[in-house]
């Protein structure tokens, strides 16, 4: 009696969760509907409950909508559809397919090249590419999505096909023959032996599917093939019957790794583009996945055998492939963490993020925030220039009073984008939730888009000290409030607990920490005298400690001169400063005989390093400016627009009527972008303000921000550093004229 009660309870629970007396399985074609009907009949005859009812939709998207609307209950989806179903409709994966015991509920998308080639993941532009088919997971979605998301491939206006056709030097993408870019995307395709079916998404095209894409590479038509991790091993070393592959050896091919290296084809677990999740059954979020698994588990227990009357994991009887489930499925397993993010995994999610761009959702305008009359004029010219070249989205210019107003308006959806510097990026991200969409790149030899703040000392074994032993030393700074000369080093020392300001008095705390300093400033009234003690003024001894070039120790070269002439023990400068003033690079008398090897860097870990090791030994990496947007903005469309635009307008000598990175025609500097910008660059994996700024910079910035004073009232929102310092000065009774233009 008790057993019957349990069975009744389970039945009632399943019926409640799965929308009544039945499970409505959604199908997308007549053959799939027929297989579903046969499965329903087989389950019913075997006494498997609840009954399965087949509901036919017009497409996968339609089925997802039907499930979300409670007009259907379940469907098996691939990774891309799982992403869409989860992100847009709140569906969850509950039962996963298993194909291969070695990799379980996943497989790997890889990029294969011939061993003798010199292609890497970073040099794919212009090479010939082989794909399994248009919109196929490992042959198209993952590699294209990965290239977009990593910033290697820019897409304007969601036109992915055009972007790919421009990026590769010809391709075979079976199924692309009906697109507007078939000349490029089908250039390598050959059809069958009779020349029929060229670029068809079928086996009439010899380069279709996994083996076909690999054949495209093996026969020399292409330089890279995007296939599954098992494809090379299945088609080499005598394992393939067709004549084209009988002599191929797996050792003659290699994989391209995400870090730019290459690896043997057997090392696909560590060297791949993405782990591709298996297909999974999805249901609504309020349904019980464990009950769905019990239903399907009973089915596979009875109908996953060659002798069974119905074959759950075979579609051969219906003249199609992969109906209801993939034919290669060996079993179904329950999914423990039933969220689309957990099932898809980080690598695949990133690839999908780069690929999914709906032109119908693309806004017509990108509203850019501008802060001055000259910037309005330049922005207007940029909007006209972009429009004439039919760049999308079009630019609209919106004037604001301050970067803070820009941040607020972007957060509120009134405008879309603004270019900000480091401390404003911090405020935009922390206070307003904005994210970087593109960055500026300044120096051709500097791939990091920024410079490093370093502490330089003389190489002296008898008087060696570390960063932890700076108390009582003499310090040289380029100027008060200069990023590398003051903000970052002082912030870092505050954050590390070496400098402990009392009552927010940072200036006095610094003057008491060092025995003497030179920190040039605009107005030295009420300025602690130790901060000017090492300064020397001009050749006549006048203008001592002034915040301009009349003070010989002003600026980054001046701070280094302060160290070189033994006035100070440590100089806080840029990583380039030593090289610019040694080994004959500066002909001024004070620098003419200096050698870079006579100087070292102080590292945060207490060690010293050669001046050439600045990337590993620095106080912080100063970030470049970045274009900041709301997190719901498609950052790839923003970068895609800027990348296409800079091809036309990025060179200061271009003849196209507008210069993106030059403000001289508008009687201003650094309008919209810094004039020193060479190119706009993608953010890559630096998708948050903290990622873009870097941990050391954020810590140093927060070291300074932590010194703001708060009375009995609730603390005010955290301002940017440029807003904080005037407040600090007022609290100290010092004039705002102390503020120095950033160096």
Q: Would you kindly provide a written description of the structure presented here, covering whatever features stand out?
A:
This protein is of the alpha+beta class. The chain folds into four domains: 2-102 and 278-355, 3-Layer(aba) Sandwich (D-Maltodextrin-Binding Protein, domain 2), CATH 3.40.190.10; 106-276, Periplasmic binding protein-like II (D-Maltodextrin-Binding Protein, domain 2); 366-425 and 623-695, D-Maltodextrin-Binding Protein, domain 2, CATH 3.40.190; 451-621, D-Maltodextrin-Binding Protein, domain 2, CATH 3.40.190. It is 31% helix and 16% strand. It contains 23 helices and 26 strands. Strands 5, 6, 7, 8, 9, 10 and 11 form a seven-stranded mixed β-sheet that branches. Strands 18, 19, 20, 21, 22, 23 and 24 form a seven-stranded mixed β-sheet that branches. Strands 3-12-4-13 form a four-stranded antiparallel β-sheet, with helices on both faces. Strand 22 and strand 23 form a beta hairpin. Helix 16 packs across helix 22 (695-705). The longest helix is centred in the first third of the chain and has 16 residues, at 2-17. The N and C termini lie far apart (85 Å). The model is unreliable at 5-19 and 709-743 (pLDDT under 50). Residues 1-19 form the signal peptide. It comes from Mustela putorius furo.
């Amino acid at each position: 009696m008790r057993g019957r009660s349990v069975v009744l309870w389970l039945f009632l629970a399943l019926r409640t969760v799965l929308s009544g007396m039945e499970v409505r399985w959604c199908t997308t074609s007549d053959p799939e509907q027929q297989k579903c009907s046969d499965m329903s009949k087989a389950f019913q005859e075997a006494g498997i409950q609840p009954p399965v009812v087949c509901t036919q939709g017009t497409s996968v998207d339609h089925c997802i909508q039907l499930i979300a609307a409670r007009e259907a209950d379940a469907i098996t989806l691939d990774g891309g559809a799982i992403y869409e179903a989860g992100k847009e409709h709140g569906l969850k994966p509950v039962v996963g397919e298993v194909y291969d015991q070695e990799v379980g509920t996943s497989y790997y998308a890889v990029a294969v090249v011939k061993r003798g080639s010199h292609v890497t993941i970073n040099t794919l532009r212009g090479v010939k590419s082989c794909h399994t088919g248009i919109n196929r997971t490992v042959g198209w979605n993952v590699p294209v999505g990965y290239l977009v998301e990593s910033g290697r491939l820019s897409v304007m206006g969601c036109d992915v096909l055009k972007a790919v056709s421009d990026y590769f030097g010809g391709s075979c993408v079976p199924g692309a023959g009906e697109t507007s870019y078939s000349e490029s995307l089908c250039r390598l395709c050959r059809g069958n032996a009779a020349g029929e079916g060229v670029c068809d998404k079928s086996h009439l095209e010899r380069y279709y599917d996994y083996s076909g894409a690999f054949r495209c590479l093996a026969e020399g038509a292409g330089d890279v093939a995007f296939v599954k991790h098992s494809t090379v091993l299945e088609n080499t070393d005598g394992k393939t019957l067709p004549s084209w592959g009988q002599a191929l050896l797996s050792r003659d091919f290699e994989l391209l790794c995400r870090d730019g290296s290459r690896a043997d084809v057997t090392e696909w677990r560590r060297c791949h583009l993405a782990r591709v999740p298996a297909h999974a059954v999805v249901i609504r979020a309020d349904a019980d996945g464990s009950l769905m698994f019990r239903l399907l588990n009973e089915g596979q227990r009875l109908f996953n055998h060659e002798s069974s009357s119905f074959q759950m994991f075979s579609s051969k009887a219906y003249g199609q492939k992969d109906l209801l489930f993939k034919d290669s499925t060996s079993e179904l397993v329950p999914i423990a963490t039933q969220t689309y993010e957990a099932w898809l995994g980080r690598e695949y999610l990133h690839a999908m993020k780069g690929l999914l761009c709906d032109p119908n959702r693309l806004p017509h305008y990108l509203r850019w925030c501008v802060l001055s009359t000259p910037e309005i004029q330049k922005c207007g010219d940029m909007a006209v220039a972009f429009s004439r070249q039919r760049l999308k989205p079009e630019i609209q210019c919106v004037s604001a009073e301050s970067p803070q107003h820009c941040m607020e308006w972007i957060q509120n959806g009134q405008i879309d984008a603004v270019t900000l510097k480091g401390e404003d990026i911090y405020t935009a991200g922390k206070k307003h939730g904005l994210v970087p969409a593109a960055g500026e790149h300044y120096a051709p030899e500097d791939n990091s888009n920024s410079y490093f703040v370093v502490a330089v000392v003389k190489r002296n074994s008898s008087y060696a000290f570390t960063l932890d032993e700076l108390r009582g030393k003499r310090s040289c700074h380029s100027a008060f409030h200069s990023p590398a000369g003051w903000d970052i080093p002082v912030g870092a020392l505050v954050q590390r607990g070496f400098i402990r300001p009392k009552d927010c008095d940072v200036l006095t705390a610094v003057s008491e920490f060092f025995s003497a300093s030179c920190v040039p400033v605009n107005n030295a009234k009420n300025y602690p005298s130790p901060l000017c003690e090492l300064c020397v003024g001009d050749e006549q001894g006048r203008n001592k400690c002034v915040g301009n070039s009349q003070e010989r120790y002003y600026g980054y070269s001046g701070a280094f001169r302060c160290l070189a002439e033994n006035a100070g023990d440590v100089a806080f400068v840029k990583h380039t400063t030593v090289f610019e003033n040694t080994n004959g690079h500066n002909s001024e008398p004070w620098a003419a005989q200096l050698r870079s090897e006579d100087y070292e860097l102080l590292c945060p870990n207490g060690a010293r390093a050669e001046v050439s090791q600045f990337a590993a030994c620095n106080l912080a990496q100063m970030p470049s400016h970045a274009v900041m947007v709301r997190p719901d903005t498609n950052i790839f469309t923003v970068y895609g627009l800027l990348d296409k635009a800079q091809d036309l307008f990025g060179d200061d000598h271009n003849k196209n009527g507008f210069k993106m990175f030059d403000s001289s025609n508008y009687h201003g500097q650094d309008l919209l972008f810094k004039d020193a910008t060479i190119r706009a660059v993608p953010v890559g994996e630096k998708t948050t303000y903290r990622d873009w700024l870097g941990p050391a910079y954020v810590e140093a910035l927060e070291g300074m921000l932590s010194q703001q004073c708060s009375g009995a009232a609730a603390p005010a929102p955290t301002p940017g550093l440029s807003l904080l310092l005037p407040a600090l000065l007022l609290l100290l009774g010092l004039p705002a004229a102390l503020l120095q233009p950033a160096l």
